[in-house]
Amino acid sequence: xxxxxxxxxxxxxxxxxxxxxxxxxxxxxxxxxxxxxxxxxxxxxxxxxxxxxxxxxxxxxxxxxxxxxxxxxxxxxxxxxxxxxxxxxxxxxxxxxxxxxxxxxxxxxxxxxxxxxxxxxxxxxxxxxxxxxxxxxxxxxxxxxxxxxxxxxxxxxxxxxxxxxxxxxxxxxxxxxxxxxxxxxxxxxxxxxxxxxxxxxxxxxxxxxxxxxxxxxxxxxxxxxxxxxxxxxxxxxxxxxxxxxxxxxxxxxxxxxxxxxxxxxxxxxxxxxxxxxxxxxxxxxxxxxxxxxxxxxxxxxxxxxxxxxxxxxxxxxxxxxxxxxxxxxxxxxxxxxxxxxxxxxxxxxxxxxxxxxxxxxxxxxxxxxxxxxxxxxxxxxxxxxxxxxxxxxxxxxxxxxxxxxxxxxxxxxxxxxxxxxxxxxxxxxxxxxxxxxxxxxxxxxxxxxxxxxxxxxxxxxxxxxxxxxxxxxxxxxxxxxxxxxxxxxxxxxxxxxxxxxxxxxxxxxxxxxxxxxxxxxxxxxxxxxxxxxxxxxxxxxxxxxxxxxxxxxxxxxxxxxxxxxxxxxxxxxxxxxxxxxxxxxxxxxxxxxxxxxxxxxxxxxxxxxxxxxxxxxxxxxxxxxxxxxxxxxxxxxxxxxxxxxxxxxxxxxxxxxxxxxxxxxxxxxxxxx
Amino acid sequence: xxxxxxxxxxxxxxxxxxxxxxxxxxxxxxxxxxxxxxxxxxxxxxxxxxxxxxxxxxxxxxxxxxxxxxxxxxxxxxxxxxxxxxxxxxxxxxxxxxxxxxxxxxxxxxxxxxxxxxxxxxxxxxxxxxxxxxxxxxxxxxxxxxxxxxxxxxxxxxxxxxxxxxxxxxxxxxxxxxxxxxxxxxxxxxxxxxxxxxxxxxxxxxxxxxxxxxxxxxxxxxxxxxxxxxxxxxxxxxxxxxxxxxxxxxxxxxxxxxxxxxxxxxxxxxxxxxxxxxxxxxxxxxxxxxxxxxxxxxxxxxxxxxxxxxxxxx
Amino acid sequence: xxxxxxxxxxxxxxxxxxxxxxxxxxxxxxxxxxxxxxxxxxxxxxxxxxxxxxxxxxxxxxxxxxxxxxxxxxxxxxxxxxxxxxxxxxxxxxxxxxxxxxxxxxxxxxxxxxxxxxxxxxxxxxxxxxxxxxxxxxxxxxxxxxxxxxxxxxxxxxxxxxxxxxxxxxxxxxxxxxxxxxxxxxxxxxxxxxxxxxxxxxxxxxxxxxxxxxxxxx
Lengths: 673, 314, 218
Prior knowledge:
The complex is a heterotrimer of chains A (673), B (314) and C (218). By secondary structure, chain A is mainly alpha-helical. Chain A is 69% helix and 5% strand. Chain A contains 26 helices and seven strands. In chain A, β3 and β4 form a beta hairpin. Chain C has one domain. Chain C has seven helices and no strands. Chain C has helices at 2-25, 29-53, 58-85, 97-121, 130-146, 150-172, 177-205. Chain C is globular and about 55 Å long. Chains A and B meet through α16, α17, α18, β4 and α22 of A and β1, α3, α4, α5 and α9 of B. β5 (557-560) of chain A pairs parallel with β1 (56-59) of chain B.
């Protein structure tokens, strides 16, 4: 048997064992079996992806004998890359999940959690290998439903059920669009292979319809604004290692699907396809980070950043599609590479950040940043891991977020070569929006890390926090290692991605080498840089400074109070809060946020110069969501009212409906042709 | 090759030791313009020396981050100074970092400094950090567009190539795209380095301040490192303004004569920019904090026009 | 030769446009008047350069008129108005400053998009600058629409006129002198009429905020 089939079998088997173990075995052994099943399965998935990427091997496997699925699998470069993403995210989440799920024992269903966690990973792995429409759609639905059940695990918490319902509704609307897209694309034959779709020639109008349907379907999964509403609700309420998987991996399936359909099956299209994707990406990136800034719930903040990062990925993908239509294959490949690289990087740092947030939640039982603080001395390892994640997502060199954002920037700067000035200026504006996004991300993560981990604890829970168990630390450390490694080695990653993309859609068959003139640097079309040397340089200069300083400077150090304008004794109430930290930006973007403010002051009865208490409430509402969804919801409600008339509550009536439906079906079946 | 790397290291060192002098020069010029006698230009060197010799006081709430931040800020700014073409271009260090790397390395320093501002838990530090990241974030789009305009002209974001391209085509230096990008970058420079009218580098306890509030808890050698890094940041921006937009005088070959000419040209450019900043700081008052975004959006429009007009002339 | 001319025209037009943008950023009337003076001088420079490079000696006259009338006379009159009323500040426009600036940027881009077919077919060395003139016209209209104080609006109107003059100079190397002069006189007359109105508004309402004019309906 070929190694790739062996690895596939191993991963499927081990996920299955993990899922079954969750249902049968209880307690710590059960949790361990779940984690081991998921870990081995993920490592096998990772190995399969890496093997295919390294050797260029393509796996092909069909099982038409499996009922209802018409299972057909095939791995090309794109699938292999996403297998790596799935494996990496899954491995870290499963190790972490072993420790994290301990406090679920007895409170929530560990069976549901463990079984669905493995099913989700399995469906993700099969999903990216799917080679016909039916396999793709079935695994897509399995992924959505298992994710839905995972969101529901903490069902008695405030808002969980509502979030899960939103998720289910939006994701199914998207699913309907996808089914329609594939029906049109496959011409009704849902078990026909993707190869047949590739060679089919559709009229341009039909292609446009397929593209738009696919964009809606995959956009709901990826959380593209304005289809993102479910994401900031559903991701925070899931168990944290599941959140890491949802944000790090599951939403990337939207990106995978979009690239598979728009680039591979349709083979690219007119420039406006890329333009639409680019525009959606830019808007998602900017609005995502702006709303993240206003969040004080740590996990919701991270969820909004997922919207932002999907936007950045789509900037790369959209630019790639545009360049492809304009006949600039080199830049197109660069755009897709940038998008994919950021996909992998986001899986690492967002996974890491959600795991870090999970550790904070585990130790303090709160997600509200205003109650946290001072954790850096109580949970030093978690704090250090979170800091790396925060720096990576803020695109600071030499970590991985910077490497991929640099590539996105370089791609967009290539817009100057596009012969149409409208497109070129559009890309220039996208550059500005991306820059603002990354600047605001820095602000947001200074807030997230600074308020959560630094200074004095703002509540008794934060005061009592302790470092989390070793398995959770290992889960985070794996991703810290990946963030650093991927950041320092774009010169290794870019050629691999270039090979993976070669021949896909209209891209050239031979991988495009981005000239690697200096062994450590990666050069795009218009610039060069080497994060490895930058990192080494900063480290070296920092060390050198420290050494020189030890020699020449005074080394006395005195511990004192924080200066409080003469007031002795510092309390947490004197610290800056998350709300206060974000206040300047809230005022700058007031026209977007339209905050509602409510200030009530209780004065001392004797004199109004003495204040007893001040209550301040302020909320920022995403008004455009209301603008968009309120009419939709009221229309749905109206339709539901009308449908209610057939719902009489009488059992006989329902039976009559069924009988009539059966008769009608028989009539149609008999006399239709 | 070796000579070129030695040159890069020498540039970095030169920038490092020149930086406090430039700050001192601006202060002296300002004092003269305001009919004060003013401290000599080498006063900042004395201050640094004094700070290095003092004991430091650290808040009992501060964590390891507070001790790490000054080194990160200093090292990342120094790294930038190695990358930018102070005396010679193009050098092989161009391949280590382009203009985007320069921008993001500076942001790395801001990130750590802002965190260090929050670390001791004082309200001043939080306020300064909050404002610093706000200004830094709002300055980013202008920076990116100015880079776009420069890169479009040169076909590269590599610093050396941008300078080389302008030298090869002197007419492009007076093209509107170039001039507008220069104006935009000048405004961003004022914001990023905390000069008037965005921030007042001379005050210490005003509610309007940004940078000085953030580093309020620092003292002794840490403060010295941070002050030195800020001076270096100012110098880096001066070098970018002077050597990317008006690259004449830069040494293209590593001969003693060329390097000496480059040193002379550098002194001239730094002097002109210092006079410009000093005159500006004498003439304008500090803006209210919430007018700063307006200033930055003005600079953004300038940068946008720069990009547009670079397409117009095609 | 043509390259230099093209570059110079672009530079001058950019300056003219930027002086127009100052209206959106500053809030004091003297700054507006200075911006207008500067703009008129830059415009005169463009006219002179076009006259030189395009061999249109008539344009020297236009440049001279511009310098005298818009560079000196009208600013002086404006200053007198400013002194008479004290300088009211433009504090509360309908659209705030930052958004105005961004809108202005978009308007310039829009002007560029609109003028592209013309630029593509034109053979003039000045063609690249034509969109900037269009941009100035749009930005000036935007000023008139969103600003409340009468003096701001007058300056906006005058800048609109400058934009049209710039478009004429760049697009056709100046319409015949006599038409040009007619337009100038028109502008001057319009200015004087507005001046009278402003005095009346001031007398009636004790303010120059024309938001107050809506009270006339009642």
